[in-house]
Amino acid sequence: PLLTVRSSLLRPKHGMYEDMEPLFANPVLPLLAIALADEAFQDYGTFEEIEAIPPPGDGSLHYIRIKKEMLDIPFFQSITPNGPTGKIQKAVPFSNRTVALGHRAGYQENIGIHDIRAEVLVRADGTPSNAKQVES
Q1: Average pLDDT over residues 81-91
Q2: Which candidate, 17, 89, 118, 123, has a CA 20 to 30 Å from the CA of 26?
Q3: Per-residue pLDDT, 93
Q4: CA–CA distances in Å: residue 114 to residues 78, 90, 117, 121
């Protein structure tokens, strides 16, 4: 017998933001913005088009195809005033951007990717114990 979902609470949510309220807190969003800016998707060009994809009722995933010409281009490209270069962004500029982002957000000390990963572990577990284990 097929189960009919009648409650709006039990209906499938869009996979992009399921359990991520508010939407801007979703860690996938910046990556999606980069892909949209690069026009990397074969069938979609805007966030609204992607958000309009109905969630599969069976809980499966909907795959978004990447344009063939984008498969050999690095996702994180170095950028010049003239736009993306097609070359991979090295770790130092990426780290510098992360530090600058932290300063704009009000952090006085430099933050790094490790700090972000440790914070996620704290939030996932509810205690700082896992983050301490990762640091050592």
Answers
A1: 87
A2: 89
A3: 81
A4: 22, 17, 5, 11
Q: What is the DSSP letter of 87?
A: E
Give the pairing of strands 83-88 and 77-80: antiparallel
Q: Which helix (H) or strand (E) holds 85?
A: strand 83-88
Q: How many Cα atoms occupy the beta-carbon half-sphere of 32 within 13 Å?
A: 18
Q: 């109905």: which residue's tokens?
A: 54
b/e map 16-26, b = 16+ CB within 10 Å: bbeeeeeeeeb
How many CB atoms lie under 10 A from the CB of residue 36? 16
Both tokens of 10, joined, read 């039990």
Give me the helices (H) in 1-136, please: 29-37, 47-51, 91-104, 113-125, 129-135
pTM of the model: 0.57
Q: Is the pLDDT of residue 131 over 80?
A: no
